Amino acid sequence: MTPQLQQAIRLLQLSTLDLQQEIQEALESNPMLERQEEGEDFDNSDPLAEGDSLTLTSPQEIASTSSEQHEAQLEEGEWHERIPSELPVDTAWEDVYQTSASSLPSNDDDEWDFTSRTSSGESLHSHLLWQLNLAPMSDKDRLIAVTLIDCMNPQGYLEETLEEVLEAFDPELDVELDEIEAVLHRIQQFEPAGIGARDLRECLLLQLRQLPAQTAWLEEAKRLVEEHLDLLGSRDYAALGRRLRLKEDELRQVVELIQRLNPRPGAQIESSEPEYIVPDIIVRKDNERWLVELNQEAMPRLRVNPQYAGFVRRADSSADNTFMRNQLQEARWFIKSLQSRNETLMKVATQIVEHQRGFLDYGDEAMKPLVLHDIAEAVGMHESTISRVTTQKYMHTPRGIYELKYFFSSHVSTAAGGECSSTAIRAIIKKLVAAENSKKPLSDSKIAGLLEAQGIQVARRTVAKYRESLGIAPSSERKRLL
């Protein structure tokens, strides 16, 4: 593989956010590249400026300039020695050109933002330590508290027993088990409610005890959690009603109160950076036609800087001139790679929209079966290329933002001899479960029977697999009180 092809493949598989970072690093490291700001008018009199400009707005605007045009432009320049358009196969980029943008350090820039590159979401550990610093406590109790906090998992539960925590202390500190338990009770008053529990029962009780005393059915909820949590887990509502001596409507309100509690209180504290999605493709309907466009705001408009390109002198082999020549060629190849990426993305997205018009018009249930081979055959590319294009690339549609891979799904035969996509079957299963009787939820076998009645032949195990992929619990766990 030539360095040009290696770069094109690497850019092709980058997500939009990663590509924006790659472009920014290229702009910072290569003086031959420049960005066109909105409303800025470049001087197009320079031959290189016109040939190497890149406007990411439409398929017509992103059409690449042919290599013959580039050669003609070089002949009109101020040098005769031509830069090679191709490098030998398996040549490393660093063997010919100086370090690329990604390898250049950017932390010595005066505008380098330390906070944006090192900050992360607050962790449960730091959140609890922050509250601990505000609590009046002796040095010995504070040491115990820090140890207990270190023993908590991200869900907020204490993973070690108090005896194991006691063994971790130096005997000279003279720490007693009662002291550890007393400090634990203080930590259990921290936010979020339910933190520091040793099991689910204690976690729910801690949250119930922090509710206002006038909360309806509070005492019954405490009794249920403390004495009959196993019956609630098995959804044996008849036995629960008898044990608590409650009618069905009363029991339902008690259960609803418990269901409002959080069994994983530590998960409320976000510990990771939020991930943002920038769509690469925008699909909209205009006069009954679906239009496919590249996201104009996803990437900047790039071109070769005509002023710096004019500094390259003919028949000059000095170090400065060689460096500028290398930077010029690297800029041209980078722009070509971007053009190739966006042309390929447009071709693939257009074919996907053409194939999945039913989904855009009617939703998931109208999704058609689609595999990589279908798109690869339509656009005349290899399946591996289609796989790279559809990975971490997103399409904005009137129905929401979807990864391009979402539109690909296997098929299931129908009674009429046709095919139904797995995505459509999942949508039907979700619809059936949403409309089921919560007292008698549909089993996987029953759902398979209902699908068969619609002409879709699906085995019970396949239904179970689709149901699990949708995050829908089994019928035994979906049983509810009306």
From TrEMBL:
Residues 322-480 form the RNA polymerase sigma factor 54 DNA-binding domain. Residues 68-84 have a biased composition (Basic and acidic residues). Residues 54-67 have a biased composition (Polar residues). It comes from the Bacteria. Signal peptide: none annotated. PROSITE patterns: SIGMA54_1, SIGMA54_2, SIGMA54_3. The gene is rpoN. PANTHER family: RNA POLYMERASE SIGMA-54 FACTOR (PTHR32248). Pfam families: Sigma54_AID, Sigma54_CBD, Sigma54_DBD. This is RNA polymerase sigma-54 factor. Transmembrane segments: none annotated. Keywords: DNA-binding, DNA-directed RNA polymerase, Nucleotidyltransferase, Sigma factor, Transcription, Transcription regulation, Transferase. Residues 29-85 are annotated as: Disordered. Belongs to the sigma-54 factor family. Residues 114-308 form the RNA polymerase sigma factor 54 core-binding domain. Sigma factors are initiation factors that promote the attachment of RNA polymerase to specific initiation sites and are then released.
